[in-house]
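Recap from last week: sequence in, structure out.
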Amino acid sequence: MMCNVFQNVRSRRREEAHSDLKRSQSPLAPAAAREWRDGDDLPWMIELPAGEFVMGENSGDKYANDTERPAHRVQFAEKFALGKFPVTAGEFRKFRPRPAPEEADDLPVVRVNWHDAIAFCEWLTALAGREYRLASEAEWEYACRAAGLGKEITATQANFLYDETGHRIGPGRRTPVGSYPPNRFGFHDLHGNVGEWVMDTWHSSYVGAPMDGRAWVDPGSPCRVVRGGAWDYLPRLLRSSWRDWRFAVERADNIGFRVATGNLK
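Predicted C-alpha cells:
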C-alpha cells in the first residue's frame, strides 16, 4: 500500500475545522474506573468497560472529512485498559536509558517511531508478566470520546498552539503529562500535547472497518495511524474523530504513544 497517495489528507490540515463529539456518540463514563500500575515508574492504567459507541464523523460536523466516514457502531465485548497518560520520557528511559537525558521525566516521550513503541510494549510485557500493546484506533477513540468538552476545545483544556484565527495561545512546547484536566474516564492528554501511535495501519476511510474494536491491520503496509493532535496544532485537529498517519519508521518532536492491555488480572 502506498501511503503517499493520501498525503493530501495531511496538506488539508489547516482547512479542516473542528466540532467536538456529541453526547449520542460518547460512551458513558463508569462511576469509578479502576486505576493501577504494575510497578514503580511504570505506566498508570485505567480500565474501560465493555460497551459500544459510534466511531467516526460526528453528526452535523461540517468540518469532518472523508477519512472519518462512514460513522459506524463499534462494540467491545470485553473490557480493556489504556494508559492514563502518554508514556513519559522517564518511563521510556527505564527501557532505553540514552534518549534525551536532559528532558524532564514527566514530559511525554517523543522522537519515537512506531517500532520503538512496539519494542517498549514488548519490554513492558516481559517486565510486568502481562501482555502490553498499542491501542487499536477504535479503543483509542472510545477512551477519547468520554471527553465531554463541548463544541470547542479551549486552551485551558488541552495543549495546542494556535486558535482558529491563527493567534498563538499555547505554550509552544510539550507540557508535563497531567497538566490539563482529565476526561470523564480519567485520561489525560488524549486531546493535544503529543500525537499518539496506535496499532492500526492507515486506511483512507472506514469502509470495511472492523465492528468489534480490534486493530485494522494490512500486513506489509508501511503506514500507521496517529491520533489526538499535538502541542503545535490548531484545535480543529484535536477533534475526537480526527485521524492522521505517518510512516512507521518516522520520528517527530510531536508524536509519542500510550500503552494498552486486554490482560486484566
